[in-house]
Amino acid sequence: MRSTSRDGVDIESLGLRIRFLRKAKRLTLARVASATGLSTGFLSQVENGQTNISLSALYRVARALETTAPELLAQVDEPLVSVVRKDEGPWMSVDSDDPPQLARSLTSTPRIRLEARECLIPPGFRSQPAWSHVGEEVVVVLEGSFSVEVAGHGTETLLQGDSMVFPANVPHRWIGGDADTRILNVIALPATQTTSHSPMPEPRHAGQRSR
Q1: Cis peptide leading into 100, omega within 30 of 0?
Q2: How far is CA 170 from its chain centroid?
Q3: 150 to each of 63, 87, 132, 155, 174, how far by Cα in Å?
């Protein structure tokens, strides 16, 4: 029986996938640790299926391995069409902010240059520091309200049903509203790019959160 985290991630399969890709690229644990800012001990535990990894840390590992977080989380045999059902997919902490933002991937097929996530933004949340990464970013408010601050533009407050598009390479931050907010976040990547996010803060585990 495979081990799973409280987020529902098959940590043994994920660890095997990371180790296989790292060795295929002839990278040492020390090299990946240096590129990600994570310790070799932590990475070894991840590869051996002994510990969970947050989405922020997984993005850093994916970038070091020249792949994407959805690809590392995906099943080995991918169908032509991939469906993610309501309430499927693990909720993971995106960053180390307090309170944390949680997200689940809606794109389990790694072949496309597209990242889509359902995100839960708690009241009082504020991205620290501001993010910047490649691609074009779209946010759509499904429930609640929150604000997006874009360097050189200012802050836009988005209510339920509102959407916003902006270049993701411009530093930006999310600011939580007065209540829990649920959004759809889509990032379109250039054809030559394999992952969007730059290194993010140290990993922080978060269990599944009900809606």
Answers
A1: no
A2: 18
A3: 24, 31, 10, 6, 9
Residues 188, 139: Cα–Cα separation, whole Å: 12
- Mean pLDDT estimate for the chain: 79
Q: Which residues pair with 27 in a beta bridge?
A: none
Q: What is the pTM of this model?
A: 0.58
210 contacts: CB under 8 Å, gap ≥ 6: none
**Cβ pair 115, 196 in contact under 8 A:** yes
Q: What is the pLDDT of residue 2?
A: 46
Six token digits for residue 131? 């993010």
36 vs 1, more confident: 36
- At 71 the pLDDT is 77
**How far is the C-alpha of 121 from the C-alpha of 124, rounded, in Å?**
9
Bridge partner residues of 131 (DSSP): 172
At 153, is the pLDDT very low, low, confident or very high (cuts 50, 70, 90)? very high
d(CA 21, CA 46): 13
